[in-house]
Amino acid sequence: MQTYPFRPSGSPRWTRCLGSEVLIAAGKFPDTDNPAALLGRITHALAAMAFDHSCTVKAIAATHIIDTDTLQAIALDRDIRRCAETYVSTVRTMAAGAFINCETTLPVFDAGTGTTDAWYRLGRLLSVHDLKSGRVEIRAAGNTQLIMYAWAVLQYLQRIMGTHAANFIDKVQLVIHQPHNHTVDEVTMDLSAFLNEVDKVAAKRDRIKTIPLADVSKFLTPGLKQCRYCPARAECEALSEKITEALRKPDIAVVAGAVDNEALAECCEAAPLAKVWADAVLDLQYSKMRAGEVVPGFKLVDGKMGRRFWEKAEKAESLLLSTYGPEFTYAKTLLGVKPFGDEVSREEYKILAPYIGQKRGAYRVVKNSAKGDPVDLTAERTKDIAKLLPEPEDNNVN
Ligand code: SF4
User: What number does CATH give the domain 8-215?
Assistant: First the structure.
């Protein structure tokens, strides 16, 4: 019997494009990664550390986290820290002292499991939270991923309480946190309304199980919400057909006054999908090359270096205080790590340099004929791991 993943995080896709889950269950498409997903995992891991240790994100001294999927050592920069801190403090405020369960992995729908970012009970309210570190706006109402997480938590509670949820829960609250957009979107509904939502998702799941692989093309439904994160999007025939159809429309762009607005409307509907497809093709190329595969005619080169930041902040602070005094140390230019300029000479910068890190930019894919040496990925990985080793004591600074 076929096993379907029915992952909650994939539900915005499989509830809209039923065939996509059939293809994935049949092993037609491998899961791909992208830099945004990686940063999301790191932000979640940092927030979970804060919840687990009942502390603020600021209090976590770690400078890097190893991503268990890719074994990359990711620097915990200001952006990741801010995003995690905003989320953690908002959940704590909303929980009003209730015990917060975080990163709970529970069974949900058949063989699938889901990891709920955070949940708690506040009296007869069950509140379930999801952190999104991306910027694409996501709403809580009708959010199938959150519905599945909340359903998994309800099932779990029913098991340990030994009674139906209606005996201890009246309302279910779903919350989406998007710190990068400065938004917290939430919806609260009665338990019966929530169970209706679960039934709708379950009906889609049941329909998917009846689709034979041979007929799958009839159940592929391209659309922005489902295709945006679909692992099949770089190779999906239904998606490329929809785009190709739009491209076949008569020339819509040129002669003023001769534009066929109906053709234009069809092209406009397909345009965001074409962008999703093009980005997916480029992401696939990047992830293959990042994994060491050769894509003929292209190479990976270093991207632009990112912004500077203080490393070993306490040692840097004590060196600055003893050398320049408090007024200068706490000057905005130094806190912003811009030590070049009128205030700090190049000689002085040499003293500060060991305490200043610089975020490495993402690699870039360029044509082989473009400037730049190809990156040696093996050497880069060794450097990443070396960063995690304890450093020798620095005796120059007290
Ligand atoms: S790319 Fe879009 S149409 Fe194709 S399988 Fe995925 S969700 Fe469905």
Answer: 3.90.320
